[in-house]
Design a protein that fits this description.
Rossmann fold, three-stranded antiparallel beta sheet, 15 helices
Length: 354
């Protein structure tokens, strides 16, 4: 019936079904036009349009000069952005819209949008990406560790470390609100990047001792962040490869923040077993990341992260049930899901080491 032109004609004319038909048509068109919308957003961010409008309402000519576009080009960009609720027209002037203001207030989203040009390059031929099994493209060059575990000098890790540091606060807030970290003595964040999550936890839980484990070049960048945040004395940054090296002992809770889904099943299981060995009996593993099949956020899991991780060359989104099964196989007990305020950003699971 849904594929029938005759049914389409009837449903768009019948008064009770017409609003539903229009909504479905709009949603389908948004799916078709999504790449164009994303590119309008990218142009707004790359040009600095949101920063310009944050100074106050301005006319098209003034905006065009500030973002280095011809007036006609600026006019077209502004109209497109207004259609997406990113900016608003006020008479002859333009100002930030609700969407643009929210995006400007969240640096992590801007950083993600800016690096999406790499993802889009890989998705220019999605069937080719699927046929070669992922990786081997522009995005895997950024996340080089995905195809070359244990490597990375200071120059190689700079780009992805900065991206993780910028986008991590979106997950950190959800994670910290979901679990009482203050009941623990020592927290080790495995794959913690530049320490954005630990910095947030340290500010919230002042008596908690902190540790980070990541590639040596990444851990060195984290030490600088901890010193700048005044956390140097209560934080230890350990360098190593968590898929090959033993993890430091003495921590009663270990966290994985947006790490597990970056790895294929074999390496992910090896990581969970490595953590199980490092934790004391009764120790806790805390996992936070976007998960597949999350009610209300299904498209984030298998659609966005499904193809993002494919292009990256490693990992896949997993459901709560899949992660819980992996935890039991690795020797953990009582895995349970924790509610987060924004499941689209991250869901959380906690389990115990028996």
């Amino acid at each position: 019936m849904l594929a029938s032109p005759r049914f389409h004609k009837w449903v768009t004319r019948f008064p009770l079904t017409r609003p539903l038909a229009r909504r479905r048509a709009g949603a389908l068109f948004d799916l078709v036009a999504g790449f164009t919308y994303s590119q309008i957003l990218a142009a707004c961010i790359d040009s600095g349009l949101f920063d310009v409008l944050a100074e106050g309402p301005q006319d098209t000519a003034a905006i065009a000069k500030r973002i280095d576009l011809p007036v006609a080009g600026a006019e077209r960009l502004l109209r497109g952005a207004a259609a997406l609720d990113l900016v608003e027209a006020v008479g002859e002037h333009w100002m930030l819209g609700s969407g643009g203001a929210s995006l400007r207030g969240n640096r992590g989203i801007g950083e993600m949008v800016a690096h999406h040009r790499l993802l889009y390059a890989d998705l220019a031929d999605p069937l080719a990406l699927l046929r070669r099994g992922g990786g081997g493209g522009a995005l895997s060059g950024l996340w080089h560790y995905a195809e070359a575990s244990g490597t990375g000098d200071a120059t190689a890790v700079a780009a992805y470390s900065a991206l993780m540091a910028a986008s991590q606060p979106m997950v950190a807030t959800q994670a910290i609100d979901a679990y009482p970290f203050d009941k623990h003595r020592k927290l080790l964040d495995v794959g913690g990047g530049e320490g954005a999550f630990l910095t947030a936890v340290g500010a919230r839980v002042p008596k908690l001792e902190l540790g980070l484990f990541d590639l040596p070049a990444v851990a060195e960048r984290a030490r600088t962040r901890f010193d700048s945040a005044g956390l140097g004395e209560r934080t230890t940054a350990h360098g190593g490869d968590f898929l090959r090296d033993s993890l430091p002992r003495g921590y009663d809770i270990i966290s994985l923040i947006r790490v597990l889904h970056d790895h294929d099943d074999g390496p992910a299981m090896a990581l969970l077993r490595n953590i199980h060995t490092a934790l004391p009996h009764g120790g806790t593993l805390f996992i936070a990341e976007p998960m597949a099949q999350t009610p209300g956020a299904e498209s984030v899991g298998d659609a966005y992260f499904g193809f993002y991780l494919l292009a990256m060359g490693s990992g896949r989104p997993r459901s709560r049930e899949e992660i819980s099964a992996m935890l039991r196989e690795a020797g953990f007990s009582r895995p349970r899901h924790l509610h987060t305020a924004m499941p689209l950003t991250a869901s959380a699971i906690v389990a115990s080491r028996t």
